[in-house]
Write a structure and sequence with these properties.
Layout (H helix, E strand, L loop, with lengths): L5 E4 L9 H15 L8 H7 L5 H11 L4 H24 L9 H10 L3 E5 L4 H12 L5 E3 L12 H10 L6 E5 L2 H9 L3 E5 L14 E3 L5 H8 L9
């Protein structure tokens, strides 16, 4: 087994518990600020997560709730920047927690000289402060949806990370929490470790090299440890 040179992490639901108590809360606050009656409970938001991208999610919801398609798209485009601002406020208040095992896994990778990068379709305006607040300056390359608007399962964000870092897919592994994320990583030629969460417990992870319940699952941790270089820098 070739030693790992790098690990590329997704953010939402993978490194942090951000969906239920982060994005959902920010969407609901944006509805309230705009004087709209719409609210997303935990179960409703779980269903809406099947639609990738916050603005697309809003447009779908507004149209499904009876707005005309043009009105739904316009309202979504107006509301999404407000939601991003509110999400950033939650991040800066320390409301978004790392998933169990995230900090420990990052520390172990750093101890063995394995670089860590980020490939997310989240907006840089909240992703960057979240990573800094939750983990500090440990990520070498961070590519977000601000630079690569193609949503997963498109492999575009992973392909950008590989281009920027010069890494070969065979020496890199991705870590994801959703079926769309796994498909994106695999389409970019990467092996992918799946770390399920409450919202993705029923996703199809048949393309993943490991199907785990979280970042602290012994199956995922053991897979990584079995491929660590002998010491810092290999």
């Amino acid at each position: 087994m070739r030693p790992l040179r790098a690990v590329v992490f997704d953010v939402d639901g993978t490194l942090v518990d951000s969906e239920r108590d982060g994005h959902r809360v920010a969407f609901n606050a944006a509805f309230e600020e705009a004087g709209l009656p719409d609210r997303w409970d935990v179960a409703t938001y779980g269903t809406l997560l099947r639609i990738a991208g916050g603005e697309r999610r809003l447009a779908f919801w507004f149209e499904a709730s009876g707005r005309l398609p043009g009105e739904a798209r316009e309202l979504a485009a107006r509301l999404h920047p407000q939601k991003t601002r509110l999400m950033r406020e939650l991040v800066e208040a320390g409301r978004i927690a790392p998933r169990p095992g995230a900090r420990e896994l990052l520390a172990e990778l750093a101890a063995h000289g394995v670089a860590v990068h980020v490939a997310t379709t989240g907006t840089r305006a909240w992703v960057e402060p979240l990573l800094d607040t939750a983990f500090g300056p440990c990520f070498t390359t961070v590519v977000t949806g601000t630079e690569v608007p193609d949503l997963k399962p498109s492999p575009a964000v992973y392909e950008r990370v590989l281009t920027l870092t010069g890494l070969a897919p065979h020496e890199t592994v991705a870590v994801e929490d959703s079926a769309n994320g796994v498909r994106a990583a695999v389409a970019a030629g990467l092996r992918c470790l799946a770390a399920r969460n409450a919202y993705t417990a029923d996703d199809d992870f048949s393309g993943a090299s490991v199907d785990a319940t979280g970042l602290d699952d012994p199956r995922l941790v053991g897979w990584v440890r079995g491929r660590l270089p002998a010491g810092p820098g290999g």
